[in-house]
Amino acid sequence: MKKVITYGTFDMLHQGHLNILKRAKALGDYLIVGVTSDDFDSRRGKINVQQSMMERVEGVKETGLADQIIIEEYEGQKIDDINRFGIDIFAIGSDWQGKFDYLSEFCKVVYLERTKGISSTQIRSENNHLKLGLVGKAKRLWKVTNEAVSINGIDIVGTSGSEHDSRLGELPDYSFNELIEKSDAVFIESDVKDRYEQIDYALNHGRHVLCDLPMAIGSEHQKKLSETARQNNCVLMSGIKTAYSTAYYRLLLMVKSGEIGDVFSVETTCTSLDEISKLSEYAANNIWNSMDAWGATALLPVFQILGTDYVDKRIITRKTDSYFDLFTRMDFVYSNAVATAKVGKGVKSEGEMIISGTKGYVYVPSPWWKTDYFEIRYEDQNRNKRFFYELEGEGFKYELVNFQRAINHGRTINYTSDKVLEEISKVYDDFYGGNGVKRI
Known about the structure:
- Keywords: Nucleotidyltransferase, Transferase.
- It holds the Pfam family GFO_IDH_MocA.
- GO terms for molecular function: nucleotide binding; nucleotidyltransferase activity.
- Residues 176-239 form the Gfo/Idh/MocA-like oxidoreductase N-terminal domain.
- The protein has 13 helices and 19 strands.
- It has helices at residues 15-26, 38-43, 53-63, 77-85, 120-127, 138-148, 176-182, 192-204, 219-231, 246-256, 290-306, 396-409, 418-433, and strands spanning 3-8, 30-36, 68-72, 89-93, 108-112, 130-135, 154-160, 185-188, 208-211, 236-238, 263-271, 312-319, 325-333, 338-344, 353-357, 361-364, 373-377, 385-388, 437-439.
- The mean pLDDT is 92.
- The protein is an alpha/beta fold.
- It folds into three domains: 3-118, Rossmann fold (3-Layer(aba) Sandwich), CATH 3.40.50; 122-241, NAD(P)-binding Rossmann-like Domain (Rossmann fold), CATH 3.40.50; 246-390, 2-Layer Sandwich (Dihydrodipicolinate Reductase, domain 2).
- A nine-stranded mixed sheet has the order 18-17-16-15-11-14-13-12-19, with helices on one face.
């Protein structure tokens, strides 16, 4: 019996996929189809996939062409599968011409003619066309534009507040109201004090919103925004890119599942001296203070891991004036744990995160907020575990893809709960209101 194997993501199964499967089937007597896992796609940077692995497997199964379906989960698996299943022919589309010649050492390699004029990429682009406007200064938006280019179905229509900066190419700069009229959705990374009114206006005009945190100052304002989004059937999502990285999400799942036991302490640090020479004229140089730049990011894992029901909070800050803090430390005491979040624009420290538990601890090296690697360490070092998940670029594309999916599916994917959003907004309200704040 001649065995044939082929692989693919098979997202949004179309005629091109069917043609490949039929041609592969005709090469032998028994066809094995490998469908990529969600994890494998994510690690390879293939983040535009619209269907879950089970949906894609079911699509292949319904064709009736596969005698056996397996899951592709890691690099190098093709060689293992060829040897394990006694494969005679490896078949793949001609768009991969030459890529898999190395497999000829193990079996015959056949490149099948690809159906022209149709692809999952094209279908995704046609089905999920989204006109996106960007709100904020160019110094914070140009990385977003660079990463959005690789996402099918997102067109950036313009900016508001970027002042025609050359880093944004030829993107037109509109007034905020004009940009709302031209967009289906907006990405907001404007000054913290301006966000609430901008988000409220966008939602009340039926626009979806992806916004950096905090979205508002004060938990009641945050609650109102969430309710406005629900009333207008709009997606309102947090724009902290850390929350959407695969490594960070897996880290949270492991901690919550008890991998390190009961968590007694969470410590996060976010500092930078990149703009230290310009701080004397921070307003003219459009430089955010330490809290606006780093506070929400540093607080995110604290509230996601320990929750928001702390019993005491203390904020210690070093300021140059009423707005600009060079350094701020936030301490939280829970009934059974503690947490510390440190941020600074005028101080330098190791940008790491440490989560301490009764069985072990999680260590995320600097810069922890660009999470692609973390370790779980135990008393017995032989049990230590290391985890790596690829993170492309700055990570903006991951949150943009999740934003796009949430819009297409008609619901917000809950990477950051309403309680966490509200508590972050409350901490900012306390910070700017001087509630429980000690200046040094």
